[in-house]
Amino acid sequence: MAYNAEDHARPAPGGVDTHARASATPPFPVISTSTPIDRTDSCAAPRGRLQLVLDRWLAGASTFAIAGSAVVAVGVAVMSHEVATAPEVHAVGFEIGPDTDLDGLSDVFEDVLSTNAAAIDSDGDGFTDLEEIARQSDPRNELSIPVTSGKSIGQAAFVEGAQMRVLTLVYVPWAAVDWSKFDLHMGLQTPVGTIELGPEVYAPLSTLKFYPGSKPGSLVARLESTVPASIFEGIGSFALYATLAELPSTKPAYAAATNFVEVAGVFAAIERTDAAVLAPRALTPSSGSGPMLSIWPLVPPEDVPSAFIVGQICIQTTTEVGYVGATLEVLVDSSDCKSADSYCSPTCPFEIGTTKQIVDALALIGG
């Protein structure tokens, strides 16, 4: 892909706080936390463990919602390439935390990702770290840059204390779009089924802020959803995903997914190494038919258990077993700790012959 530095001038750091004028009318419904949840639609799987996860999520929404009203999903007024009169939306206590470079990624998150908390563009490729995640490229690899110029959606997550923070990022090449036509849905995929998380579920637990992209006039909408990490304990591997449709079409056109597994007492990310943030750069391609995977803890360095090996990451080669819906099952052929700016689980060498389930973002939209 050709790269023109003049087309990708770096923006000024810092996001656009979106405060509404008193007379402004939001172009989206503000959903009350008392709105009944249709559990038949929300839980497309048998009851039991899956229903328990949904109940925990909804309990969190009712616990953390701000007084008498919920926050919104996407859907804001954006005019003339800049945010004009859109309300900033957030729930009490869900602040981003210290953000030294003001790029939309907290210092804690940058520690987890091993990006540079003092630079908005850690790898110096002309794209901010936040934008690279939104456009599904690697903010630590200067050779990895966004491959498409249009709209995109990205997702990332980390665990801070007792909370899991999930970032869903929507990139638009021009800010002058009708955001009210964006239909954003999230979902939780577990081994026993899928939960569709509509705005009435995730909105009360989310904050929304805007940041400039690298190209003049472009914009990244940053939606952060904060939920108790205990929601996901004991359910094995799982994935959070997001899909985006542009009304009047209800068919998602964009999708992103984050795959998780509990490893040695902490939550870890499962990533394909061609899209991984921390995987070593000079890996031999997988000899099997499945993707090569990297597995790394999603907690700050001080919370990584002492049994993990510092300066290494778990790398696995796999053979594809098959798809069930949007979930790919793979068989682990090899599993070793490799040098990288991360931590490798002590169980990594013993995972040969195990299987993993990975939600494929493209499969979510029929790709």
Report on this model:
There is one protein chain. The protein is mainly β. The chain has 6 helices and 16 strands. The strands form 3 sheets. A 10-stranded antiparallel beta sheet has the order 1-7-6-10-11-12-13-14-15-16. Strands 4-5-9-8 form a 4-stranded antiparallel beta sheet, with helices on both faces. It has a two-stranded antiparallel sheet with strand order 2-3.
Elements, N to C (H/E): HEHEEHHEEEEHEEEEEEEEEH
The count of β-strands is 16
Helix content: 10-25%
Main sheet: strand order: 1-7-6-10-11-12-13-14-15-16
The first-to-last residue Cα distance is: 22 Å
Largest sheet: 10 strands, antiparallel
Shape: globular
Count of DSSP helices? 6
Average predicted local confidence, pLDDT: 74
Stretches where pLDDT is under 50 for at least 5 consecutive residues are 1-14, 16-50, 61-94
Rg over alpha carbons: 20 Å
Q: How big a fraction of the residues is strand?
A: 25-35%
| Helix-strand category | mainly beta
